Amino acid sequence: WKSEEEVIARANNTTMGLGASVWCDDVEKAAKVAKEIESGTVWINTHFDLSPMATFGGHKESGLGSEWGANGLKGFCNAQTLFLNKDILR
């Protein structure tokens, strides 16, 4: 590759997006690149570290939705929206 943009384009040139990793001595540069990668999880200088406290899910054809973490837990909850007309209370 000749540029970060080319690396990002190559990484994103897939229909899948479950996990990816970025390896670099410059952690700030790695974080910048990682934010541009279309993947559910992007590890920096490691790969496949998992935690039930962190949301896990894919992008593109690697899945819809997520599990684990606060976002994953919301999938098992029933949301309720309440609207209150304050004019009626006057």
Structure in words:
With about 90 residues, the protein is an alpha+beta fold. The chain is about 30% helix and about 10% strand. It has three helices and two strands, in the order H-E-H-E-H. It has a two-stranded parallel sheet with strand order 1-2. Helix 2 links the parallel strand 1 (about 20) and strand 2. The longest helix is centred in the middle third of the chain and has 10 residues, at about 25-35. It is elongated. The N and C termini lie far apart (about 70 Å). About 10% of the residues are buried.
Write the layout of secondary structure elements.
Elements: H1 4-12, E1 19-22, H2 27-36, E2 41-44, H3 69-74
Parallel strand pairs: 1-2
Average predicted confidence as pLDDT? 92
The percentage of residues in β strands lies in: 5-15%
Give the low-confidence spans. none
Q: What's the main sheet like? A: 2 strands, parallel
- N-to-C series of helices and strands: HEHEH
Tell me the Rg in angstroms. Answer: 19 Å
Assign a percent range to the helix content: 25-40%
Multimeric state of these chains?
Answer: single chain
Number of strands: 2
Overall geometric form: elongated
Compact description:
The chain is an alpha+beta fold.
Q: What key phrases describe this protein's structure?
A:
alpha+beta, 2 strands, 90 residues, single chain
